[in-house]
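Re: duplicated header lines in exported structure tokens

Our pipeline writes sequence and tokens for each protein into one text file. With two proteins the header for the second block appears twice in some exports. Here is an export where it did not happen, for reference. First protein block:
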Amino acid sequence: MASLSFNSSTLRTPSSFQSQKPISNYTKPIKIPFTFPSKSPRSWPKLRRFGGSRSSVSIKEEVEIEDEKEEEDDDDDDDPTVELCYLDPETNPNSLTEWELDFCSRPILDIRGKKLWELVVCDESLSLQFTKYFPNNVINSITLKDAIEGISEDLGIPLPDKIRYFRSQMQTIITKACNELGIKPVPSKRCVSLLLWLDERFETVYTRHPGYQKGAKPLLALDNPFPMELPDNLFGDRWAFVQLPLSAVREEILSLESKLVFGSSLDLDLLGIEIDDNTMIPGLAVSSSRAKPLAAWMNGLEVCSIEVDVARASLILSVGISTRYVYATYKKNPVTTNEAEAWEAAKKASGGLHFLAIQEDLDSDDCVGFWLLLDLPPPPV
């Protein structure tokens, strides 16, 4: 497992920082100055080309039929009104146990002059892709429940164990529909594939739709509430800004896949994050004498991102869909402000990629919890 300790061969710490007084309420001084290009424009990751905008439910075995359909499929790809019902034929249907779902209005008017609603469903790998438009007068849990069942029946896949969604305003409808189907609804902004797909659909589908309303604002904007006090069971003992090369981050992800530690990862290849393995990824390391229970509690929170509030000299932890905590604070002065700003700049330079690591000791080579995080803007719809 990759080390998160302060290795002098990879993490250079000027002597002026070594004697620095503690600046956090975890009593650990921030040690690491990040080095990064002075001009690092923020570029959000884009989804790699996925399975294609295909409206077919299954793959036809007859070559003749496939050839005849090829031209029609190409036309469908260019038609922004086409709805998707696609399953990657190489995917095991039983592996699609977690879906990501959005049910919301789009900046599109129907023939009645009313805003169209759309259901968008996918899985983390985009092996499942489904979209369907609805008029605004049928938006309820019954419609959603029937649509979810329809996806299962049309594609021949079992209903999922969990469905993640990121809009708090739709919680009642989504929760009721899921509960009636025996599915666990999970409010979470860790719907990264879905969020990036919506961003792509805005550019390639919605803006090209004949009913598109230019300049229309999202009906259901994402919540960004004032951060609350951190619950006692989530406190650590010490913390520090750290960084790891992307290659070491990938090693930590492998530890997650082998189920040796708590946490969650992201599919970097799918997201199209094109950065070198030697690129340093910023993170936050937290140590605790009760590291395993702390990691277990964090594992149930759907951790989304960590950001620095320089003005308030604090770190903000975002979890779920509308919960933000003051995760840590530090004494504000020019040195700590520069450190905090450098950490945020390093995060932007890596396309928003960062991580949270929980350890028994900050000098340990092992983690008991590791979350790979991505700072994303809200979707345009």
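Second protein block, exported in the same file:
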Amino acid sequence: MASCKKGRMKDSAFRRLVSLVLITVLGVILLLVLLRTNTISSLINSDTYEGTENIEIIDAIIPKLLSQNELSVSLHKKNQIPPRNLDLFPKLAKDRVVIVLYVHNRPQYLQIVIDSLSHVEGISETLLIVSHDGYFEEMNKIVEGIKFCQVKQIFAPYSPHIFSDRFPGASLTDCKDKDDPVEKRCEGTPDQYGNHRSPKIVSLKHHWWWMMNTVWDGLGETRHHAGHILFIEEDHFIYPNAYRNIQLLAELKSKKCPDCYAANLAPSEVKSRGEQWDSLVAERMGNVGYAFNRTVWRKIHNKAAGFCSFDDYNWDITMWSTVYPSFGSPVYTLRGSRTSAVHFGKCGLHQGHKRNLACMDNGSVNIAVDEIDKVANIKPDWEVRKYENQAGYQAGFKGWGGWGDVRDHELCMEFAKMYV
């Protein structure tokens, strides 16, 4: 009997010890969850938000391929926050050209384009939307410091930078480089050159396409906008006369150039500063400071399947190579013969974001702004000179690759359906 009693006592003590260990482990896990939650909350809730956004609206636009994480849910909500500086600029001009600045994570570049925008004539009349590819605190703080116009931030909630351990980010089961999926038992579809996806590279095209669908069809501030929207990037220096010039070009486009789908602030050749002619110029659309209206967006959106399946990770090369040629007629853009915006970045989007590695001369730019660049320098009575035969990517070009994974094609198409 004594032996049995001692055995029961040992069992009881052992159970108490196991319970204590389990409680301790659960307590640690709960603490870690709370700490992580608080960290994310402090990261993304820098604005006080008392909107009416509810989870059903968010669920309605979640791509079917993805399940959200805490950060993506929070960024969805953050995208509903009204523009800042409404107290300083309560009314927008009726003929406004909305400006969209899309950025990644190059703070020094962003500071330069923001400083240049602060000197643009007419900037206070319009809305500036800053579209972030993911969430980066230093980039966020720079935008929060803007005081020269209404400004709204949106954050791509399905960026690979938001999903660090699964698609559209990188997962342990993903194929890499030229892995054989069968031999390596990994996931992924290689591009036409046998290379598997790189999340940092494909985010270029994903962000642009998500941004376009969101700005034109998803935001309350712009989904009913009838005019033009101007798109610029974080490594574009904008001259003081840029806004007035793009207003003029948008107005003249249909009258002066029926084949012109867009208006541009700069030549398609990024190193060119313009011909300095007393005339307007019609050429292929450039990727520095381009503006178009909803009619053109609808034509682009109708070509979603071609855009999403073309094996090139560059959005602009995809547009030049497959989307524009599919329109069935020449696609031109109208611009002045003197640039109103310049590309100053010396390297690609995903390089140069560290201060000691920034791709600029001594971390700064030296762009001359002459008196003629401070006021509108386009004349409505100018004739149009058209470049009939233009160099560049033509229909039939197969693409540079980097966009072969079927999952990227499907996610891209899901973005096209978000607001339809």
